[in-house]
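Hi R.,

As promised, here are both runs. First protein below:
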Amino acid sequence: MKNLTFSSHYARAVLYGLEKTGRDVDALLASRDIDPELVHEPKARVPTEQFIRLFRLTWKTLDDEFMGRTTRPCRIGHFHLMGSLVVHGANLEDVIRQSIRCYRLFSEDIQIDLNLEGDEVELSLTHHHPELDPDNFLIEWLLLVWHRLVGWMIGRKIVLSHATFMHPLPPHFDEYRFVFPCQCHFDRRRNSLFFSKQYLTMPVTRSSEELDDFVRNSPRDLLIWTEEDNSVTTQVRQLLEASEAGKLPNQDRVAEQLHMTAYTLSRKLKAEGSSYQKIKDNLRRDQAVTMLTRQNLSIADISNRLGFAEPGAFSRAFKHWTGVSPLAYRNQDQLPSP
């Protein structure tokens, strides 16, 4: 997706393990051209390139793919080693079972289970020391990794029917529709992803060379691999992205383009934990962040381009979205992506 940004909640979560070591995290951020004030602002949005640099900074500094959230580090290279083994699997079920065996060798803290007893595949993840993952970020991250990786192995974006989580509804639930594009349930017995068993027999389509590129680009393809995401939320956002920023189509027009009624569109979006207004607001928020940080435009110009009646309305909306005014956000002096 264009102009994609990430909640500063996730930026702080990525840095959690670094902060526990007592390192000067703000100095490390500055060394990667990342503004510490942006990361600490509760409602701020972090551009994609900066967010990717946060991951790589944490991985490299800690030499830990689990980012300081387990009793022992999972040294950099474990993920690549696992991928190098499973890329030779016959089909998706083979990939998952071999990956589970690898994880059991990597860590005693993280347990992955494959349950085929029901009508669907249930892929579950358990953290045996949840006190080391107080905001459940590692749980969310590893479930995302498994969903994206195994789908990438068969060249398909695996459509999730639903997901369950042991933790209660989080404050950042609004982000879940991009991370887990399905109906999510909380306060459940397991952390699990559910999808059709039809995927299990699909063959691996990737080569060892493609895997090397995938790992080299990590976590980029894990975070933003959306080309084959057929969720209604993503379809609506892509339609809006293709429109002129200040002239977004209304919900009736979007429903018509998707060959359904406005009522059906609303119902399907609600089932995914979304709505047309949320998608529209989040797109304009991400576009505003991009314009503020990467383009030499005045606040009035940005307001006009995004279709606001006047700059004051835009400023109020932006502060509601991010917690700071557009001018304050710009004054944090984010640098362009390299």
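And here is the second one, sequence first, then its structure tokens:
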Amino acid sequence: MRAFNKMMFVIALCVNAFVSHAAEQPETLKIGAQAPDFNLPGVDGKRYSLKSFANADILAIVFTCNHCPTAQAYEDRIKKLTSDYKAQKVAVVAISSNDPKAILLDELGYTDMSDTYDEMKSRARDMAYNFPYLYDGDDQKVALAYGPVATPHIFIFDKARKLQYNGRIDDVEKPTGTPKNLDAKNAIEALLAGKPVPVATTKTFGCSMKWAAKEDNVKKEQAAWAKEPVTLETIDEAGLKELIQNKSDKLRLINVWATWCGPCVTEFPDFMVMHHMYRRRDFEFISISADNPDKKDKALKFLQGKFASNKNYIFSIEDKYKLIEAVDPKWQGALPYTILVEPGGKIVYSQQGPIDPAKMKRLIVENKYVGRYY
């Protein structure tokens, strides 16, 4: 079932890519073309243009992003290209041209970050990027000039900044695989040796570019959430204990909350973001209301206002101490309370009080039952 879910998610990404390409894809820069100039902010606070790399004999420009699983799979290889050839006057620069306002939450199932400039800073820091990482997402002028097809897409230029190679970095997306064709490396080696690039163009596989025209799709996504049914079921002690045992094959995030709990109400939208990000993966979010049973209608109304189409429960009796013991004997009783439970019932995270949403998303996507790669 897990393999089937992953396959269906990848198919959805590919369909999105096809639709985007058909409607928005600009022409890709031709071999021999002059590199279009740019003036973009980097995550280090500096601005970069072609002149910034004037001392390089070879310039490799990689269009990539934070959120795409294929882009994440290539991060270490881009870092290796940078370090392997730095002494030979080869410069590598990465550009993210995705419009953050055009990215659907259900396109973020393999990541803990979207593609805003601030999130780019965080990703570059977390992954210790050794190359400049530039933002082009506001007007996408650079992407429109170069015409990347997917992320990642690499363009390699000679000393005169004539394009000599464009396409994939290599032919294996998953970082645990072994590529048969090291296309970008071969192009660099040929240029360093003063020889023609053996294969000048290749196709490139990855996530579609998120062009600004797709911003309307985000509004449609949000409108669709409002049509999804929201339910609230009553659950007893035995039912709670079974939830914690997690006999499913999914990573299970459980949040205990109440309508009268200020921090609970404040943080609940963060759980809805995670629900919509990861629900196509081997993941599920479950909420448990600690409101008294006679407040069920009030709790349901709150959930409906948050488009909480996940599984929602309310404890069947007023005895909150039985609720506490059934959920987690280690819980001291303060709300909100959140646990992350692997299949088989192993609690791998617990938090009394509000969570850190960024940390939680990272815990989810890096858990072995979910993962960053397909």
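A quick note on the second one: The mean pLDDT is 93. Let me know what you think.

Best,
J.
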